[in-house]
Amino acid sequence: VLFRSAAAEVILNNNPSYMEVKNLLLSIGELPQEMNKYMLSVVADILHFELPASKLIRQVLKDVRVHNYDRFSKTGSSSAYSGYMTRDSDIASTYSLDILYSGSGILRRSNMDIFILNEKTELHANQVVIEAQGLESLIAATADEGEEDLESFAGMSAILFDVQLRPVTFFRGYSDLMAKMFSATGEPMNVVKGLVLLVDHSEVIPLQSGLKARAEFQGGISIDISGGMDFSLWYRESKTSVINRGSLVVVGNIEVDSLFVKAGMEARMETETGLDFISTVKFSEYPFLVCMQIDKGQFPLRQFVTKYESLPSGKTYTSRKGKTQLVAGAELPLYQENSNMCKKVFSEDPDSSDSWF
């Protein structure tokens, strides 16, 4: 299933031909239930977000053998959705969330991407992928056809600024899974943590007056990405979390030095933010209740400007102004069906009378 979903993604994102798209759409209905639903969500997201393959997909959908109720009425919990985080005339930032479940409601693959793009370039700023298999025995469920003998496994991989990072394995094998469950602290496992130098530039600018100005710019970012999977057999619930934390500092300084005076100005900008993806599945009933959330926490934006002058006599003058702004957080929108499902998930009382125990 994971290979099929990855292959479909590669084909649809790399200028597919008419027959390639047609064959992919004709396969819907012949795949496992959740894979059918996932493929339908991918197609709907491409059409909604007007991705490059959308025109070709619309041409294929004119064929009634492809576009009919029997094929496009498949149900399930898997989904794919894309949206804008920020968007203006110069630059845009997008997010996408793809999630694939097994037929028993256990997570198989979740993929969260963040892209930053303008008219000329596209930067894959962040990707976090969680994959799992062979976990049906935890809830005494039946594995999908062809996956009965898969080894229990869960892991996580990440891409940061177009660079693939070393993957992390949560557990491999049933014995390792049991050991991790009994020794788990509930804290997410760290995938990457570090500092990245974004810009380090220095130059001398000759002025019309004959003086020279020295300009220096430096910027750095701190990244902390972690993720985890939790199972509660008591509450019949599983939760997958991806936690992204980051802070950014950019400093620019321009200084003019002459024989009689030294003057300059420094501008500094600081911010820190977080983006959390949480997927909650309640498998106490069928169909399973699945709620996905992408939370962008509130974050401070601090800006400082410092002007300074010094004379050969030793006298100095310094002026410093600053502004701090608190940007409100928000939960990024997904599709309406997910919102309705979240209401059901969080309105349920885990200690209700229909509990198993």
For the biggest sheet, the summary is: 8 strands, antiparallel
- The helix-and-strand class reads alpha+beta
Percentage of residues in DSSP E strands: over 45%
- Along the chain, the helix and strand elements come as HHHHHEEEEEEEHEEEEEEEEH
Please report the distance between the alpha carbons of the first and last residues: 35 Å
Number of strands: 15
Helix content estimate: 10-25%
Poorly predicted regions: 351-357
Helical segment tally? 7
Radius of gyration over alpha carbons? 26 Å
Overall mean pLDDT score?
Answer: 80
Dominant shape:
elongated
Task: Write a structural description.
By secondary structure, the protein is α+β, with helices and mostly antiparallel strands. The chain has seven helices and 15 strands. It has helices spanning 2-12, 18-27, 33-49, 54-60, 69-72, 174-183, 336-347; strands spanning 79-87, 92-101, 107-117, 122-133, 153-160, 163-164, 168-172, 189-206, 212-232, 237-257, 262-282, 289-296, 299-310, 316-327, 330-331. Strands 8, 9, 10, 11, 12, 13, 14 and 15 form an eight-stranded antiparallel beta sheet that branches. Helix 3 (33-49) packs across helix 4 (54-60).
Show the helix and strand layout.
Blueprint: H1 2-12, H2 18-27, H3 33-49, H4 54-60, H5 69-72, E1 79-87, E2 92-101, E3 107-117, E4 122-133, E5 153-160, E6 163-164, E7 168-172, H6 174-183, E8 189-206, E9 212-232, E10 237-257, E11 262-282, E12 289-296, E13 299-310, E14 316-327, E15 330-331, H7 336-347
Antiparallel strand pairs: 1-2, 2-3, 3-4, 4-5, 5-6, 5-7, 8-9, 9-10, 10-11, 11-12, 11-13, 12-15, 13-14
Helix pairs in contact: 3-4
